[in-house]
Amino acid sequence: MADINSNIPEGELTQKWTKYRSSVALVNPANKRSIEVIVVGSGLAGASAAATLAEMGYKVKCFCFQDSPRRAHSIAAQGGINAAKNYQNDGDSTYRLFYDTIKGGDYRAREANVYRLAEVSANIIDQCVAQGVPLAREYGGLLDNRSFGGTQVQRTFYAAGQTGQQLLLGAYSALERQIGMGKVEMYTRHEMLEVVKIDGKARGIIARNLITGELERHFGHAVLLASGGYGNVFYLSTNAMGSNVTAAWKAHRQGAFFANPCFTQIHPTCIPVSGDHQSKLTLMSESLRNDGRIWVPKKKDDNRKPTDIPEDERDYYLERRYPAFGNLVPRDVASRAAKERCDAGYGVGASKLAVYLDFAANTERYGRIEATKHGIQNADKATYMRLGREVVKEKYGNLFDMYAQITGEDPYETPMRIYPAVHYTMGGLWVDYNLMTTVPGLYALGEANFSDHGANRLGASALMQGLADGYFVIPYTIGAYLSKEISTKAIPTDHPAFVEAENSVKETLERFLTIKGSRSVDHFHKALGKIMWDKCGMARNEQGLTEAIAEIRALREEFWRDVRVPGSMDEYNPELEKAGRVADFLELGELMCIDALNRKESCGGHFREEYQTEEGEALRDDENFAYAAAWEYLEGVHFNLHKEELKFENIKVAQRSYK
Length: 659
Hints:
The chain is an alpha+beta fold and 659 residues long. Among the domains are: 268-422, Flavocytochrome C3, Chain A, domain 1 (Alpha-Beta Complex); 496-625, Fumarate reductase/succinate dehydrogenase flavoprotein-like, C-terminal domain (Methane Monooxygenase Hydroxylase, Chain G, domain 1), CATH 1.20.58.100. Helices cover 39% and strands 15% of the residues. The protein is built from 17 helices and 19 strands. The protein has helices at residues 13-23, 29-32, 44-56, 94-104, 111-131, 163-180, 246-253, 317-321, 331-346, 360-373, 381-407, 462-482, 496-515, 521-536, 542-562, 574-598, 622-625; strands spanning 36-40, 59-63, 81-82, 156-157, 184-187, 190-198, 201-209, 215-219, 222-225, 258-259, 264-270, 293-297, 314-315, 355-358, 416-425, 428-429, 442-444, 627-634, 638-645. Helix 1 (13-23) crosses helix 5, helix 5 (111-131) crosses helix 12 and helix 10 (360-373) packs across helix 11 (381-407).
């Protein structure tokens, strides 16, 4: 089946990475000083990679479109980071983390990469603690853990509800140290608009200074893309407004295969859409499912206040349907269950597209524990709730404050209303075991690649993968390539390949400005987002996907005929930035629908309505679709499918069950 080489090392699974690290080719310190590496993106994957490679002696250039590396979207992650430390002595292990991740991804991930991720997870925590990241601790001093979806152990380390921010500050500090030592050149407010290839290898990028509009040429012996995911193809998502696919898509157009683009994660705990005025959605961390219970009224169209609905008239549907995991089922399962209840008429709130996330039971439980600790006996419920609220506030206070500010409701007094929304993308640039794309010298790290999460990412695994790739994987694997490049001198940026790439970028930018149509960029982005959500969102079917492909093609033609981009190219021009990103989304959206139409099965976040069990669960077809779909870009926005067969030699493949 496979016609691409994943370069997985030989040997027994548990020894692959150890043996690889011991035998991979190295670059000696003197040679590292003459090798230049470009890193695009400054989130967890990009900042950790840039800092680590510079510490090793490489000359590094790091690019981000934000005004500071610490504003990367990694900062928005709230709930935690997974690691197999087994501090709770509840049976966790490297193998269990590996197993949970493969199963959580519905058996559509590569075993070798996932085991390596589980293996290095413990090192990540040690690294972050050494950097001073203030992870939560228990009274005795050990790092604390909490539960996340898809697991039955507590392995999620956290820093209140701002884990991503604290981890990014740790990586940012390491990066800033290298910048201060002159080992990293940092380019803020720069956007990569093209990969430069020479003799088939990635040798640099064309970047645009977003303040002046100037196009710049930058050489690198290797190029690392750590530019995040593409959830904003849906317009409304939990991603930052600037998050986009452009860096990865430019690489795709230069020959880097794009894998599993239809694998999109719908997060179950988001604040519901409130109107057409919204440009993004707000995530309520999955950590809230650790202590919150999800329910809907048992009666359809029940308009009573949630606090007026008695316990016996509430349907705790996740606990009812999945007793073994309850509220901690994986995200795709929880999201579909919420949609099913709302579609059946049990939704709450004005839109009826929401369910309740209720903390009352665990607030009282925490209060009883606190009362016992303080020697308070026979207290009333109000006292228990008051004491418990302080515990909840310490664990989740910033999230509760955020909810109150956005909705005007006090979640300490009344249950939160939540509904699924687009969050993370499991698809991305295809990479081999070394994290190299199909373009030699071009790597993809973190959410920009497809490698570790299969068809559904377990909560708290994104931060784990980003830091694993940057701190512990790429520093070894890049040596296998760069050890053969030590005789390659820095290529002058007046080389014809750089000139041609810059001219191509300039032509595209000028084309945007000369169309002078009647519609804004946002008009087309919103239109694309509606098509994607309605027909390639939580549920897909053959008819809808076929219609979506035709509609996206028509929308793309209209975009290139009628988009209006004001201003000029040689100035600060946010509309011009957006135009390029939306143009890429209009091509990516089509590929996502093509991939979803081609995959005639349901798995993880990809739910084809034609392929489901009698109980409404995802129905895989392992005989025909146990592969990673790697798409090659062809001229004229056409795509050719390549397949990487997924072999499971260490895990028994079975129908996923959380009951």
